[in-house]
Write a structure and sequence with these properties.
Order of helices and strands: EEEHEHEHHHHHHHHHH
Distance between the termini: 53 Å
Strand content: 5-15%
Strand order of the largest sheet: 3-2-1-4-5
Number of domains: 3
Number of strands: 5
Shape: elongated
Radius of gyration: 28 Å
Structural class: alpha/beta
Helix content: 40-55%
Number of helices: 12
Amino acid sequence: MARKKQQKRFEVIHPHCAGIDIGSREHWVGVNPDQSDKPVRCFPAFTEDLVSLAEWLESLKIKVVAMEATGVYWIPLFELLDSRGFEVYLVNSRATRQISGRKSDVLDCQWIWQLMTHGLLRGAFRPADDICSMRSLVRQRAMKVRDQAKTINRMQKALTQMNIQLANVISNIAGVTGMKIIKAIIDGERDPQVLANFRDGRIKADHQTIARSLHGNWRVEHLHALAQEVAAHDFLEKQIAECDRTITQALDRLPVLNHEPTQPTKPLRSPHRSADEQASLHQALVRIMGVDLTAIPTIGIESALVLASEVGPDLSRFPTEQHFSSWMGVAPSTRISGKTLARSCPQGI
């Protein structure tokens, strides 16, 4: 009778590790019971308590720390531990839920520690610290651009309520002609012929067509809403310009991979940047990434900036291009169903 093959037990991959359950007010930390008389401790989220947490782990000679990515509460502790030389694994909470076990019998931090001890958790992709800094700036700028787009929609709503059909005769009410006309309306001008004189020569619609679109009812509440949205639009325009300047400074601080100047491979367009600013940004991205990302079809200067800030020049964390495509969420799903299935999010934090 053949003997059954003896099952191998889980090996200890990280003998000196800790698991942390992140919270908004306090963090629970679990370590090996053989290393401490009190293997589970709770630390408040204040900065001095986070320093005490790091010092306690250092006293136990902990080298690897695993924590779940909970909201944004993990960021201060992650940055502190990373600066002190710990190997920090930022784990998607879905990974701990998918592994079956006696999770209900222990605290979350103990369960994270047990899984990490046997190497059952994989850290999410997070670029270098200087790239993370630029990534935050680029995301902040993108949020401001989205907010500005909302103000344009609300401007259009106010114009429509006044039966001002300007959007039907010009392609962009936030362009040169549209903003001149709208600001003149806010300043009190009501004569359609006078307003139509602000027409730019590049506008296809003639003077009389624009004038016909500017007959409205001029109700006070709609004019008030229009004025506030224009003020918000202009304020956000200034904030976007400030983000651009700060991003340029962040790019200058990054290490250079390519010292040779490179000419743009195709026209670069951005609604918030001049041609000189776009060319300067393109040169900086080539120097930092080592390649010209805009040489890829459909990749413009804004998309190249997002790729540089989200990933950075070091792609060693991705063994193959298939892994990178999967992380980006553009790989085809292997699940088959008769209905639409939700796409998974990239494992980057």
